Amino acid sequence: MIESAKEFVRLRNSDQPEEYHRATWEEAPVEVWMEVIEHHPDMVRWVAHNKSIPKELIRLLAQHPDSDVRFFIAAKRKTPQDVLQKLTRDLCDSIRMQVAVNAKSSRETLQILINDPCDQIRERVHKRLGE
Predict the structure, then answer these.
(1) Could you please report the per-residue DSSP string of 66-127?
(2) How large is the greatest C-alpha to C-alpha distance in the chain, in angstroms?
(3) For 65-91, how does the pLDDT look when each residue is reduced to its tens digit (9 = 90+)?
(4) Residue 21 zone, left/alpha/beta (φ > 0; ψ -120 to 50; rest)
(5) CB 45 within 8 A of CB 24
(6) Which pTM does this prediction carry?
(7) Is the distance from CB of 87 to CB of 110 less than 8 angstroms?
(8) 124, 97 contact by CB (below 8 A)
(9) Residue pLDDT, tens place only, 82-128
(10) CA 56: distance to chain centroid?
């Protein structure tokens, strides 16, 4: 388990693959993630990239101003449907596309994107829905 924001930053910046992978896969207490977000803004996208962040953090990061952060959240398999549905209205095409290709996006979520202004997103949704 990652025990501090300092440890997460060190792991993420490490040249050693086993340490770098720990930053991607290991859990940390919510307080540690919040400290990283507050004191290391350059690391927030890597918090979003972590596979074990809790849903409360996913909900918070889905509203982050950095589109890279929202992109990682839209790509997560464990992102709740209500969050994915909110991301269908994101201004960034790449985020809406991540929702369209996310294997866990429900039919209801995909239906929201059926009339998306982006042709590629609409095409992907039609394929996913079998239309």
Answers:
(1) -HHHHHHHHH-TTS-HHHHHHHTT-S-HHHHHHHHH-TT--HHHHHHTTT-SSHHHHHHHHH
(2) 49
(3) 999 999 999 999 999 999 999 999 999
(4) alpha
(5) no
(6) 0.94
(7) no
(8) yes
(9) 999 999 999 999 999 999 999 999 999 999 999 999 999 999 999 99
(10) 12
pLDDT exceeds 80 at position 131? no
| Count of all residues that appear for the chain in the document | 131
| Token pair belonging to 26 | 């290991």
CA distance 39 to 26: 20
Structure tokens at 101: 């290709």
Cα pseudo-dihedral 111, 116, 121, 125, rounded to 10: 20
The crossing angle, in degrees rounded to 10, of helices 93-101 and 119-129 is 10
